[in-house]
């Protein structure tokens, strides 16, 4: 029997209730013992707006409390799972002087990320298509992530004047070696085989078999049978020849540098060893990104190695708040203009060079938020476990 769920707010505090009209952007249904969420903005590549974040929070809280629900599936409608957060709308709020409302988007998003990381039931994300930025926040922290041949992963925030957030300083910092720094600084893309190989995905299933997988999952009777079912469908495809995973030695050598300037110098020293095309691409991406974003991102990932997921999210919220407030740099607004609004792809960063970003500015992004800034991110750590960490198997 199929049961369509009506929207209802179940979050205490700062999370507002979504309206009936909002429910169309995230559809929820329950079939047997499995609940299914569908991100439903296909014309926008399922970009997460605030309504969708609120709706997902409501659905997860309801499904977690429902003893009839054994597991949850989350998938996207169309050619994307989720291409990220709708930062163009956030940018517009900030430009209108509504900066606290703009930063409130990140507040709600990070609360949702933490809730998923501490979700008490198996969560299965079907990463069939584009999964970038905020899309990773509503998938990587769950127990199971199913990649396909259509999967396309990236954390491209440095090109937008922002920083890899949604807990990325946690899950990127836990990848082997210094791959996390490379992915976070350059925004390099991975396919499904790459994601499986490094642990960002837990399973790989050809897209043509997803419907059959979902059908079998809908009939599971226990959390253990979820993993058994996934195992029946999953395979291990080969890593493609052009994958960055074939270059881990040079990535570790170069991206272990203490500074972004040091990383660039290391990349330059590697030239002449037969892989200049890849080196040129990595260097070009770094030189095209916001210098401020690069410096705070490197520091963020390095700090993330020593922090819990809750600590990472709290620090990332400080960073996002400072980006929206433009206290130290207006690069977030300039990046959104150049990449998402005017689409001229010619951002004018300020400062324009790495040496213009001081250590004091970087530390300023991480400083605690005062009452006049709306205060710190408050996560339900006490309710959901003080030691809660992302389930990403990395």
- H-E order: EEEHEEHHEEHEEHHEHEHHHHHHHHHH
Distance between the termini: 37 Å
Using only C-alpha atoms, the radius of gyration works out to: 20 Å
Please state the structural category: alpha/beta
Q: Count the helices. How many?
A: 17
How much strand content do the residues show?
5-15%
Strand order of the largest sheet: 1-2-3-4-6-8-11
Report helical residue fraction. 40-55%
Mean pLDDT: 92
Main beta-sheet annotation = 7 strands, mixed
Q: How would you sum up the global shape?
A: globular
User: How many E strands?
Assistant: 11
Low-confidence stretches: 1-21, 389-394
Keywords:
11 strands, 7-stranded mixed β-sheet, 4-stranded mixed β-sheet, globular, single chain, 394 residues, disordered C terminus, disordered N terminus, alpha/beta
Describe the secondary-structure layout.
Elements: E1 2-4, E2 26-31, E3 34-39, H1 50-65, E4 71-76, E5 80-82, H2 87-95, H3 99-117, E6 123-127, E7 130-132, H4 134-137, E8 144-147, E9 152-154, H5 168-171, H6 179-186, E10 190-191, H7 192-198, E11 203-204, H8 210-217, H9 223-233, H10 248-254, H11 260-269, H12 276-288, H13 291-304, H14 309-325, H15 331-341, H16 359-366, H17 381-384
Parallel strand pairs: 3-4, 4-6, 5-7, 6-8, 7-9, 8-11
Antiparallel strand pairs: 1-2, 2-3, 9-10
Helix pairs in contact: 1-3, 2-3, 2-15, 3-14, 6-13, 13-14
């Amino acid at each position: 029997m199929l049961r369509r769920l009506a929207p209802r707010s179940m979050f205490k505090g700062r999370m507002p209730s979504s309206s009936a009209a909002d429910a169309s952007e995230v559809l929820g249904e329950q079939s047997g013992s499995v609940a299914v969420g569908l991100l439903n903005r296909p014309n926008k590549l399922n970009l997460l707006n605030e309504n969708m974040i609120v709706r997902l929070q409501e659905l997860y809280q309801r499904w977690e409390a429902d003893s009839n629900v054994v597991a949850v599936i989350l998938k996207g409608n169309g050619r994307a799972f989720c291409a990220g957060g709708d930062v163009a709308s956030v940018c517009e709020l900030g430009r209108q002087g509504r900066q606290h409302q703009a930063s409130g988007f990140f507040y709600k998003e990070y609360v949702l990320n933490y809730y998923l990381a501490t979700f008490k039931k198996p969560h299965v994300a079907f990463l069939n298509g584009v999964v970038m930025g905020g899309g990773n926040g509503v998938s990587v922290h769950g127990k199971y992530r199913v990649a396909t041949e259509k999967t396309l992963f990236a954390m491209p925030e440095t090109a937008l004047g922002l920083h890899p957030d949604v807990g990325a300083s946690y899950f990127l910092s836990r990848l082997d070696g210094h791959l996390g720094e490379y992915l976070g600084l350059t925004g390099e893309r991975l396919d499904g085989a790459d994601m499986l190989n490094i642990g960002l995905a837990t399973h790989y299933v050809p897209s043509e078999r997803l419907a059959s997988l979902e059908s079998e999952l809908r009939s599971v009777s226990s959390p253990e049978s979820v993993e058994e079912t996934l195992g029946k469908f999953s395979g291990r495809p080969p890593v493609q020849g052009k994958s960055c995973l074939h270059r881990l030695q040079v990535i570790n050598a170069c991206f272990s540098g203490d500074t972004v300037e040091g990383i660039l110098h290391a990349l330059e020293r590697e030239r002449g060893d037969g892989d200049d095309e890849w080196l040129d691409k990595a260097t070009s991406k770094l030189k095209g990104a916001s210098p401020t974003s690069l410096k705070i991102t490197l520091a963020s990932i390095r700090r993330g190695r020593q922090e819990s997921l809750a600590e990472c999210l709290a620090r990332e919220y400080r960073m996002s708040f400072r980006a929206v407030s433009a206290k130290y740099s207006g690069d977030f607004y300039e990046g959104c203009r150049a990449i998402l609004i005017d689409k001229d792809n010619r951002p004018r960063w300020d400062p324009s060079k790495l040496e213009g970003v001081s250590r004091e500015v970087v530390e300023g992004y991480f400083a605690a938020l005062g009452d006049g800034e709306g205060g710190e991110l408050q996560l339900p750590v006490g309710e959901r476990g003080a030691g809660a960490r992302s389930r990403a198997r990395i």
